[in-house]
Amino acid sequence: MDKARVITLFTGVVRAGSFSRAAVEAGLSPQAVSKAIRQLEEHLGVRLFHRTTRSLTLTREGERLHELASPGLRLLDEALDQVRDSRRDMDGTIRIAAPTSFGNHMVVPLIRDFQALHPGVHFDLLLEDQFTDLVEARIDVGFRGGNPPERNLVSRRIGDLWLLVCAAPAYVARHGAPRGVDELRKHRCTGFRQPNTGRMTPWELSVDGATVYLDIPAVASFNTAEAEACAVLSGMAIGQLVSYMADPELDAGRLLHLLPETAALHGGVYMYYQQRTQMPQRVRQFIDYASERAPGMFRGRGG
């Protein structure tokens, strides 16, 4: 006996007030509905209806079954409706905030691959290097590097940020490679200037298991990580680059990883979003997709 089917027919008879009307609603014959109810009564060992030629009323046991079964059937209907509507809910826009360099190198590929699976999803990507307030900017999902957001937000660590000392093969061919940290100051190096404060960022290096910060003289300084990476790739100087930008160039041989023992862990990359129980299906799907896919995009120390 298909219990879900016969319970559904039972509640249909109660709602319609007759076997014949319930049969019409279910697209069955009255005989088929009557047979199903009879099977249910035999299975339970009780009568569910008082039947006469003029009336159909529930027995006490029938009232009890209807009382207990109705909420479950409503939940089942709601679950089916939500799954049915999830296709429509997938269509729409997801607003994302991310730092400029990370957005270009990591978020754009995530968007591209997610849209290949869900063409009805559109994205609005906001790239800015300061922390973005999700509520004020109406952002669905944010990304940031360093430390997790210290607000009432859900955050997931999706990768590690490593700082790698790199140079182009052309630079090494002309100037050689430093054999230790002390030799860095003898080389031509780039520097990163904080766009908000204008201050130069010291190089962060791992030396004998401890993190040290060094002010390395720069032959050229930049206020965007991408501009600094372009300068290093051109052979202008040695630079300290974040791993998600350096790794593809190291793989392709366009950069060399110098002093690999000094690679410094610079915190993590976090995806963050608001604590919401009623989240659009497309946003939930993207969060789950990014949580699964993004860690594989980080190789670790690089080089």
What's the rounded overall pLDDT mean?
87
Secondary structure: number of strands: 13
- Domain unit count: 3
Terminal Cα span? 63 Å
- How can the largest sheet be summarized? 7 strands, mixed
**What multimeric state do the chains show?**
single chain
Anisotropy-based shape: rod-shaped
CATH fold annotation of the largest domain: D-Maltodextrin-Binding Protein, domain 2
Beta percentage is 15-25%
Low-confidence residue ranges: none
Which structural class do the helices and strands define? Answer: alpha/beta
Rg result = 32 Å
Count helical runs: 10
Helix-strand pattern: HHHEEHEHEHEEHEEEEHEHEEH
CATH architecture of the largest domain: 3-Layer(aba) Sandwich
Give the helix level as a range of percent. 40-55%
CATH top-level class of the largest domain: Alpha Beta
Q: What are the key terms here?
A:
303 residues; alpha/beta; Arc Repressor Mutant, subunit A; D-Maltodextrin-Binding Protein, domain 2; 3 domains; seven-stranded mixed beta sheet; two-stranded antiparallel sheet; 10 helices; 13 strands; rod-shaped; LysR-type_TF_proteobact-type; DNA-binding transcription factor activity; Transcriptional regulator, LysR family; DNA binding; LysR_subst-bd
